[in-house]
Amino acid sequence: MSKVIGFGERVEGYAIPVLNEREIRAAAGLLFVAVFLSLMFVLFKADFVPIKYVVTMFLTDFIIRVFINPRYSPTLIVGRLIVGNQTPEYVGAAPKKFAWIIGVTLASIMFIFLVVVNSFSPITGIICLTCLIFLFCESAFGICLGCKFYPLLYKERAQYCPGEVCDVKTRQDIQKTSRTQMLILAGFVAYILLTVAVLNENYSRRPYDLFGIRTSTQSR
What angle do CA 184, 185, 190 make, to 5 degrees? Predict the structure, then answer.
């Protein structure tokens, strides 16, 4: 039973149980796509069926991660298959477990409201948006937002954080942002705002079918 129930892997050279960050990011990306697409059905078709299934699978997956073993999480298994040829990036297991407990809590609330009570409200909307932000930051940037709260509640210092952000170090030259780059970024934002202000009317026009394919199809 001890080989089944557990959290984290013992890897030579690491003093604490660790997890593969590459697998976690891949799984987060899969979940982000699932949540995002199901949310689109809600927003544009008022269809809550996909989001109910996604919430159920999300909750089940995270319960397996936290209370049984991450190695048996379906999304992490798929993530392992996807990034299996990449060199593992080991991170401390404890902060991830804390972050996933937050995930279980949020998914449980969503499950109760959407599936059990069969209702929606600003609560479900806020939780859904929060989950999307958490998943996006994990998959796109490798930033575990839930892990940020771990040092606030536990006295022990987090070890083996993604990207070694827990270690105090100076940035290399390639990581530094110059004033010129910041000015370019600010100019790009101003350019986008100006484009919206000047061309919004043109952009709002519905494009026509250049080759008349849709018209010819409908006339049959």
Answer: 95
